[in-house]
Amino acid sequence: MQNVGERLTVIAGFDRNGIKPMFFKGLNDRDFKKVKKVNFVFALREGRKKLMVFEVETDGASYELIYDQESILWKLKQVFLPEGA
Amino acid sequence: METQTSIFTGGGVDENIAGGSRVIVHADFNSFFARVEQQCNPNIRNRPVGIIKSAGRGCVIAASPEAKRLGVGTGSDVVTARGKIGDITFVPADFDKYFDITKRFIKIASRYTDKLEVFSLDEVFMDVTDTEKLWGNVFELVSKMKDDLRREIGEVITVAAGIAQNRRMAKLASEYAGVDGIFWIGQENKIAVLDMTPLTKILGIGHGMEKRLRVLGITDFVILRNKSIDYLAYWFGPFWSRHLYNLARGIDDTKIVTADEWVRPKSVSRTFTRYTNAFTMWEKRQTLRNLCDEVGEKLRRMSLKARRVGLSVRGKEINAWGQRRLGFSGTDDGRDIFVVATKILEDFGNNEPLRFFGVFVTDIFENCAPTVPIFEKDRKRQEVLEAVDKINETYGSLTVFSGNLVGNQLVVPEVNGYLGDKYFLLKAKTPSR
């Protein structure tokens, strides 16, 4: 289980619409999680810093990943676990 | 057949007076906040969802259609909602996310017309009179726009579209459109639709007006339409009589107000309901200072100054508001606003615990030729404010804040659902977010 706020290692691809996370893992994860679907993307600003938020779905749960366009780093913002998990 | 003649003599363009028919679309997101959260998190799709302002808040500010069907809607309290629906999921609102979608939706809608009015966070009016033919007809245009929305924003987020000859009827049409639907009100069905509509469902009749109408035995549009203009003028005066007369006939000549036509706001305000009561004067002053600083920052970003400060507070035993004048030269400094707001608070002469605070400034004017203050302390103050604004603009809101706020839970700037500060958010020179 990832910790909210933890930095992530992400394998991303670029298509016509821009960047798209494909696999990601946290510091303590052994394996990458495959992104099954990107449900939603939106932009945020922290001062002049531009952030992209990706709401992604893996096999087990949904995650909110933040991509900082300035530092080129990925962070985990939230985890949505299915009911009963 | 009812004669469709407007008697409104104001500056707008009425479809009949102009001799041609306008085509107005009102696009309204269905259960906007809840649908966005369902788009983001598939685990809560097709399930009852209540949106709350933030974790720990007790009021539902929006509900998913699934929750609405089971009796939980906007304004329900969390405990009652949980009692009605055991498995309801409460999600804290994320206004940055919603506002980003609004901006994207404005971009999509702008492809179809340049006459676009952003009405609130989840509603736009579009005048497509001149552009509908480019897509065949208005229905094709709306379908195409819905496809764009589905593809570019998400398949769960849907829009109800109302089509009519004027703004009010288009808004009414979207109320009847249902989830992801389209409803058309034309000359042919206008009166029939009005006759099945409760008075308050139409934009322009509030609960206060409904009460006054009810006293006169006017409970629906059929009765209202049968009243003469003289009768209405006797009871409601010259303005409201014309307004009601036209409403009863589905006539409205208000224009679409595009962003270019927005005028600077007449007031700037910030309200906040605390999580806990403010018992001590220190707690009250901290909350006030926080809100006043935000109001001051907004004024500076819009190059405005204000000459009047108002304060509204509420607690279990108190519900008061008041206002005071600042000097003739006005201010855009949160500290000056705070000093006056504190005096108003002291004027209330009440030591009751407070939960709600609202600070507003009025008598606003453009600070178009800022002068250098004569006194050194004022010059220094101006330099400090400029530096603080620059830092906060670069590193985010409240990176630097007043020392009075240390130890207080900071109230951060946020977008509100009615987008009352759209001039600031969408038009001010330096967007803050």
Summarize the structure in words:
The complex is a heterodimer of chains A (85) and B (433). With 85 residues, chain A is mostly beta strands. Chain A has one domain (7-80). Chain A has strands at 7-15, 18-25, 33-34, 37-46, 49-57, 62-68, 73-80. In chain A, strands 3-2-1-7-6-5-4 form a seven-stranded antiparallel sheet, with no helix packed on it. Chain B has 433 residues and is an alpha+beta fold. Chain B has helices spanning 32-40, 65-69, 78-84, 95-110, 138-152, 167-177, 190-195, 207-215, 221-226, 229-248, 281-301, 334-348, 376-395, 422-427; strands spanning 24-29, 49-52, 60-63, 89-92, 116-120, 123-127, 159-164, 182-184, 268-278, 304-314, 319-325, 354-366. A five-stranded mixed sheet of chain B has the order 5-6-1-7-8. In chain B, strands 9-12-10-11 form a four-stranded antiparallel sheet, with helices on one face. The model of chain B is unreliable at 1-19 (pLDDT under 50). At the A-B interface, strand 4 and strand 5 of A face helix 1, helix 4 and helix 13 of B.
Which labels suit this protein?
heterodimer; A: 85 residues; mainly beta; seven-stranded antiparallel sheet; 7 strands; 0% helix; globular; B: 433 residues; DNA polymerase, domain 1; Alpha-Beta Plaits; Dna Ligase, domain 1; four-stranded antiparallel sheet; 14 helices; 12 strands; 38% helix; disordered N terminus
